[in-house]
Amino acid sequence: MTSEEKEKDLQLIHYLKAVVENSEVSEFEDIGFCYWNISDNYALIKDGYALMCNHQTFYEHIKSENCRYLYWLVCDATQRLTLEKDGYSDFWWTLYREAFEQNLDSNNYFVEFNAHRAALYKNPILSHTHCNLESAKLNFEKFLQKVKHTPEYQFYKVIYLSLVSRFSSFDKIELKSLCDNLFDGLSHPKTTNGYLIGEWRSFVTPFDMHKQSVVGINSAINAFIYNGEIQTAKEIYKNACDIGLPKNHYIEIRLK
């Protein structure tokens, strides 16, 4: 990150803090939007302590309203990894466990998916507690059972298998098959929901079919690359690009 980029993030943090402190917004979700973006910009500049302090205030704001919003706190992997980098792993995982335990019967499927996705992400640079990853894996599996009836199920399962592949055995045949099933979505039109990054509604509204396909296929390709299945990854990437998958520079470098 350049000094100019960091300064821009700091300016946004100061602006959003002023908005909240001066009561320029009063709606619960609008205030939450500010808190989430303050935390996210602290994550971008890798300030785990400041992120933790803001997230604690965000937590208190959520607890004043409704426990269904608890997943809002833990639906971003960058925020989680920044906290872990600076020694606040227990803080994040405590929030995640509370969100899960307080929302066992929730039907806000997409925000729950985002939280399990953030919990299951394994960064090779950071050390991770095995029991935390196993707990997230079990929670994601329970989630998959709950959402089998939804149109997004195949997408959720592809993401699950792709994430699990980084630290545990997984069904490569099933991942390949599910990935192939997502190809049809590449022909669907892109849509926009109009929500801003960090809005509650942006986390509870599922991706359209096109974005599900792009995100899911890219995740599967990276999983096969990570596990040394280069030929399979090349085959999927070529076939998907032929029918509309946008070129991915990161994947192309890894496939060379």
Description:
With 256 residues, this protein is mainly alpha-helical. The chain has 2 domains: 1-109; 151-256, no CATH class. It is 66% helix and 0% strand. It contains 13 helices and no strands. The protein is globular. The model has no long low-confidence stretch (mean pLDDT 95).
Give the key terms:
0% strand, 13 helices, 256 residues, globular, 2 domains, mainly alpha, 66% helix
Unreliable sequence segments: none
Biggest β-sheet, characterized?
none
CA radius of gyration: 19 Å
Number of strands: 0
The helix count comes to 13
Outline type: globular
In a few lines, what is going on in this structure?
With 256 residues, the chain is an all-alpha fold. It has 13 helices and no strands.
Task: Annotate the secondary structure layout.
Blueprint (H helix, E strand, L loop, with lengths): L2 H19 L6 H17 L3 H16 L13 H9 L3 H13 L7 H12 L9 H17 L6 H12 L7 H10 L18 H5 L4 H18 L3 H13 L6 H7 L1
